[in-house]
Batch of 3 targets.
Target 1
Amino acid sequence: MGIDERPAIVEEKTRIGDWETDTVIGQNHQGALVTIVDRVSKFTLIKKVDSKHAEVVTEATIILLQPYIDKTKTITADNGKEFAGHEKIKGQLIADVYFAHPYHSWERGLNENTNGLIRQYFTKGSSFENITDEQVDAVMHKLNHRPRKSLNYKTPHAVFFAEERQEAA
């Protein structure tokens, strides 16, 4: 579905569970990182994949979001071929998938910004062939535990999991 069909509440950024997704490509188009970020908390998920093929990106997306299926309402992607498996993603995660307009990267601006933060660790033009899953996990941990001014200096992890702590209290 096109982004114009996305529920208005997603734009309000008032609930956890509306995600933006993209890929970061390695040197010579060898390897990629699937990046997914929650629009409210900025909680980030990253997985290294061997290629940008739709099947690979689809599986990585499902693997990353499956543990948070109860916090997955919508996913917004760009129009790249790598997101051709959106029907499988929708079925597995029970979440609607929306596509930004072509060449409108600002419609997924948080994800674009997050990819810039990831590039601080894996610079543009660097090879992803020797990046380990542990290195990717370390970057993901750093981003999720970095206080953000826009979150009143809370971390994405604290904001993302705040509802669970409140319910337990």
Target 2
Amino acid sequence: MRLDSKYFDRIRTRRKREPEAEAAPPTCQWDGCDKKGTHRAPVGRNAEGQFFLFCFEHVKEYNKGYNYFSGLSDGEIARYQKEAITGHRPTWTVGVNKAAKNSPLHSEVRSGSYSRIRDPFGFVKDGDGRGSGPRFPQERKLKSLETKAFDTMGLAANATAPEIKSRYKELVKKHHPDANGGDRGSEERFRAVIQAYQLLKQNGFC
């Protein structure tokens, strides 16, 4: 490169920095000691990250009498040690979180999830050993209103959902006021059929 090249004008060099004077080490914080404090010692509980600075002799002396749990009872110490295993964070038994399990949202999600699961052999179990959301629920004893609703529609108690819906359409068409010229008896029968169907529908029969 020539000395009169234009690129020489673009070259910049850093000025050599003068060496900075090294900071003098702090003095030992032990009362009456003038030596250098080159060794750190923890301040204590509730002061994590803070340290005293001592010389070598005094840091040994300080560590001999240092007790992190000073002022705590045996029960408090045992509790602290137990919580320290998990980093002082709350924990639950595996698969159990009572606060979330008892929430309405948990119940809603749980019931919605199990309603889409086909589990004819009952592999999905709750903690009590019962199947969660069984596909084929066990028969239960009918309540008096449910029995009356089946009688009103002229159906057996073990009628299936399609049978109930089909029977409902048939009876509504038969007893509708427009089909019976305003007959009062037919109108009452019409209302009774509607009420019976609504009750069975609300109770999960159809």
Target 3
Amino acid sequence: MRRLACLLWLYTLAAPALAQETVFYKCTDAQGRVSMQNGTPCAPGLRQEVRRVGEVKAIPAAPPKPAASAPSPPQYGEFIQVGGPPTRRAPAAEAAALPAPPPLYQCRTWDGATYYGEEANPPARCAPLQVVGIDGRPGQGLAAACEVRHDACTEVPADQLCAAWYRRLDEAEFRLRYADDDSRRARQTELNAIAAKVEASRCATRAPAP
């Protein structure tokens, strides 16, 4: 009996230490979608990453979020091409007499993405907000909500306009190359419009027609 009491006492001391370790599983499917699971391994066929946490501490209540502020305009040149070949276009010598291309703006969205556009003040975007139930937990199919956000834009310098228009042309060609049947026509129209503006300006890559 004394031995059993000692074993129970040792188990009581060890149990809290064992319960302090938590295992998180990061699961990635073939399409790159990521999900996090607490204590449950990933399903077969998913890439699994494991993280062990030695102690889970209570998380204090988060302070109220400050009012959302507009994104700061990007400094021109912050955009980094992460895929696709670099452009090899160059203006034709005879195109120097043509007018300058239309202005371009490098814009930053509410979530930090950057893009080129022709509007200094593009239309507002609706950033999605998480909707929770009356119990405070997120759930699907409850409702939808969003917050109006405005992109911040910086005008591309005049001496960099051709390079920016070439990049925009490259991106339009890339989108068309991987378009599905439903979007192919719209993306072809977009590419044609960008190419027409480039070829009508001093950025033209071929000599203008006589």
